[in-house]
Specification:
About 40% of the residues lie in helices and about 15% in strands.
């Protein structure tokens, strides 16, 4: 049967992009190299310039990238930092102030700060409460535009607004490329490239294995073994670096990058050379605007005067999604998609970014590579207490006199950490409880403050060290309230892919908000979430809830 044709091009279904919107979008794209995987980068550019994303712009962007409007919208709406408005909606205020309401800031008075700012700010400013922004040692923190205000008060916020200081500056203490070279930087990388034989690469991997360097983003997988596994797959291979530290209480990666970014970059390039990496993607959390500008500057300097041949390096910007700290969700985000964790197998070492073998690492793990090669595995493993080996970077916040990031021996106890590094508890406060690994690591009572802090030492207590984010609570705090804060965080950050996590975290937060907790039902919810959730978010979300039920029965009397 023949079908009549009119000779006209078929009309596209759905909303059509307006010519003005198509013209406007093109200025935000890459010259001659527009690609679908850079969708999130384009969305950032548009919002940075305009302050929001409207329907017309999203439709035009979809048409240029040859995507459906629905696909572009679902990506933009997945990430918390994108502000989407309908065509007939009023434009949002030009300035947004965000106040962190997660555990450390909550302890420091974030709710009072939010209440006072709501009363004092005019309609020309938008106020948002947001989850942890990685500055817990300076709690409470407000962010004016992208400029964080440590130990924020209403007056400090108003002053920053009035002065027009709305962009975070580059960290002043950061070592520049030229200074890093003068101090012997990149010499290990040059030696590796010059030698470049199999024996040298094997020796480096053995050093990591002998030092027992483990992934310091939270999972703790042995770094040397990971290099060996990815190296065993056929080229081309890619690398993804995770600097999306969104775990409440964690700020160690920011601490190191603000001071010595090239130590991390050299470790990254050594890993890339040993494993045989073709291209590197650095995924940086969006809240670190000053560090983003710093890395852009230092990567330019590195590429203009490279110490040796370098693989291509691309800096990618997160958009406010805790789930993208999970390695496969981060990879989905780098590919320009929603940050939805992948089902495994296959694991990303075999099929990761764009279906290629991928070496994924946390920033701090790579930060230690140069030092290990210079000082040897024995130097690293010689540190440690209570039968443990190595060093750990502890992000400490909460009710201690001196919160901060402390490099301490693995296996140190909380009590030792407080006494030797944090100058004790705040005046008038006595230790009551602590989160040993951020919001997901569980909560332990003061009676367990002498348990060694390291990988695998906390499992029997229903906790884990994760990224070593220590949040200290005192006798003036309600542990059940902070467990609720953690559960509300997980409910907010669930990607929604699986029902046990999506519904379980939300339902648990509702039940935990009641005066009387239905403990049998909450225990049942915990079991379902931990057994049936796809990724670590849903599996770990019950930890604080279980701990408060187990260790703090007096709060339910």
């Amino acid at each position: 049967m023949k079908v009549k044709t009119t000779g006209r091009k078929p009309r596209r279904r759905g909303r059509q992009a307006a010519p003005a919107d198509l013209t406007a979008v093109k200025q935000y794209l890459d010259d001659g190299n527009t690609s679908r995987d850079r969708l999130i980068e384009y969305l950032h550019r548009i919002q940075d310039d305009r302050g929001y994303l409207d329907s017309g712009i999203l439709t035009a962007l979809a048409e240029i990238l040859r995507l459906s409007t629905g696909e572009v919208y679902e990506v933009a709406s997945f990430y918390h930092h994108f502000n989407i408005i309908k065509d007939d909606a009023p434009q949002p205020p030009a300035l947004t102030i965000r106040v962190c309401d997660s555990i450390s800031c909550n302890l420091a008075g974030a709710e009072t700060l939010i209440t006072e700012l709501q009363a004092g700010l005019g309609e020309a400013v938008r106020l948002q409460r947001v989850p942890c922004i990685g500055r817990c040692e300076n709690a409470p923190v407000a962010v004016v535009g992208t400029n964080p205000i440590p130990f924020a008060t209403p007056d400090r916020v108003y002053k920053t607004v009035d002065q027009g200081i709305h962009d975070e500056p580059i960290p002043k203490a950061a070592l520049t490329y030229s200074s890093y070279l003068e101090s012997g930087g990149y010499q290990r990388l040059k030696d590796l490239v010059n030698e470049g034989d199999e024996a040298t690469c094997e020796s480096i991997i053995e050093t990591l294995e002998n030092a027992n360097l483990r992934g310091l983003g939270g999972a703790g997988f042995p770094a040397g073994r990971k290099w060996r596994i990815v190296r065993g797959f056929a080229a081309p291979r890619l690398m993804a670096v995770n600097i999306d530290e969104g775990e409440p209480g964690t700020f160690k990666d920011r601490y190191y990058l603000e001071r010595d970014p090239h130590r991390f970059l050299e470790g990254m390039l050594i890993a890339a050379t040993v494993v045989g990496i073709e291209k590197i993607y650095i995924y940086l959390r969006d809240e670190y605007a000053g560090i983003r500008t710093l890395l852009q500057r230092e990567l330019r300097a590195l590429n203009l005067d490279p110490p040796c041949h370098l693989p291509e390096i691309e800096l990618r910007r997160g958009a406010g999604a805790y789930i993208c700290g999970e390695e496969s969700a981060m990879i989905e985000s780098i590919e320009g998609k929603r940050g939805i964790p992948r089902l495994r197998p296959p694991y990303i070492a075999e099929k990761g970014l764009f279906g290629l073998p991928t070496l994924e690492h946390n920033m701090e793990t790579l930060y230690w590579v140069r030092e290990l090669l210079e000082k040897g595995a024995d130097w690293f493993s010689a540190h440690g207490r209570n039968g443990r080996q190595g060093l750990r970077s502890f992000s400490v916040s909460g009710r201690v006199k001196r919160p901060g990031m402390y490099l301490a021996p693995a296996g140190i106890t909380l009590q030792q950490l407080i006494d030797e590094y944090c100058e004790g508890m705040q005046d008038g406060h006595q230790l009551k409880a602590y989160f040993p690994g951020g919001a997901s690591g569980g909560i332990l009572p003061a009676s367990l403050s002498n348990v060694p802090l390291d990988f695998d030492t906390l499992n029997e207590y229903g906790c884990f060290i994760g990224s070593a984010a220590i949040i200290v609570l005192s006798d003036q705090d309600s542990v059940r309230e902070q467990a609720l804060n953690a559960m509300q965080f997980f409910a907010h950050e669930s990607c929604g892919q699986c029902t046990p996590c999506r519904v379980g975290t939300s339902k648990a937060a509702i039940l935990m908000g009641e005066q009387e907790w239905d403990q049998p039902l909450l225990q049942e919810l915990c079991q379902v979430m931990s057994d049936a959730s796809i990724c670590g978010l849903g599996q770990a979300a019950p930890n604080p809830l279980r701990c408060v039920l187990k260790y703090f029965p007096e709060e339910f009397a």
